[in-house]
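DM from R.C. (forwarded with permission)

"hey, sorry to bug you on a friday — could you get me a structure for this? deadline for the figure draft is monday and I only need the backbone to look sensible"
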Amino acid sequence: MAIGGENPPEFNDLQNFLQRSENMMMQQLEIRMHRELVRAAGHLAWERDITIGQLVRDLLSREVSRHNRAKPPVRADERLVAPLRARLAGDLAAAEGWADLDRRLRARGYVLRAAGGGLALHDWPDDRRICKASELGFSYSRLMRRFRAPFPGHSHTWLADRMLASPGGEEDEDFDVTERH
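My reply, with the result:
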């Protein structure tokens, strides 16, 4: 009962709760999936003691959150990369190992640094990032397979295990790795 024209706090709390609940009402969505995927999802949901619907909602929620937090890729201006690509192509192609490549690049005023799941070219000695190695046409995975070794000091050792384990290797592009701290 209202006293002096105001509602008691409990009533306001309940009213706010009901209003929020109404805003969060779910809509029905129909999706089609292969039987094997439905079976695997059912098993996973059973292990987690949730419904398949809850599993799908949780996965979509995480993916939307990840997408919203993702940083846009840092891409170098192609007008600047093209002449650099031409200037360094011979050294990148002729290098016989990481040490040889490092020596060649430093002689021209550049150095490679580990960057996420790949490599980035920096100017030397100022150490400012210029572009990704893959933008020059030499991805980390391609160089790693060619030199039969990971880049010295690269923190993502699992990439070397993956690239060097298979004879044909994987994609020729750098990996986008998101690290959580």
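R.C.: lifesaver. Helices lie at 9-23, 35-48, 52-69, 78-94, 98-107, 140-147, 157-165.
me: no worries. Residues 163 and 169 are 5 Å apart (CA to CA).
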